[in-house]
Amino acid sequence: METNKKAEAIKAWLANHKKQETQTTLSAKFGKSRTFLNRAINKQDVGLGAENLVNGIYEYLHEKYGI
């Protein structure tokens, strides 16, 4: 799945599941700042680190919650 589509899926899932995960809990889990996580999923940071973060978050949410 393309990274941009994964970022959109993450944003949509987070909007509907605030009691399960938030940007803050995900940033802590992945050891990144919430600001960097937010910029990555909102496609404001398009570097390799942001792409890897989006892919990692998507895989985590897919495995744990089945998105």
Through-space gap between termini: 12 Å
Shape: globular
Number of strands: 0
Structural class: mainly alpha
> Which radius of gyration do the C-alpha atoms yield?
11 Å
Largest sheet entry: none
Q: Average pLDDT, to the nearest integer?
A: 93
Helix-strand pattern = HHHH
**Estimated helix fraction:** over 70%
Unreliable spans are: none
Strand proportion, as a percent range, falls in: under 5%
Oligomer: single chain
Query: Count of helices?
Result: 4
Q: How would you summarize the topology of this molecule?
A:
Elements: H1 3-16, H2 23-30, H3 34-41, H4 48-65
Question: Could you explain the architecture of this structure?
Answer:
This protein has helices spanning 3-16, 23-30, 34-41, 48-65. The chain is built from 4 helices and no strands. Helix 1 (3-16) crosses helix 4, helix 2 (23-30) packs across helix 3 and helix 3 (34-41) packs across helix 4. With 67 residues, it is mainly α.
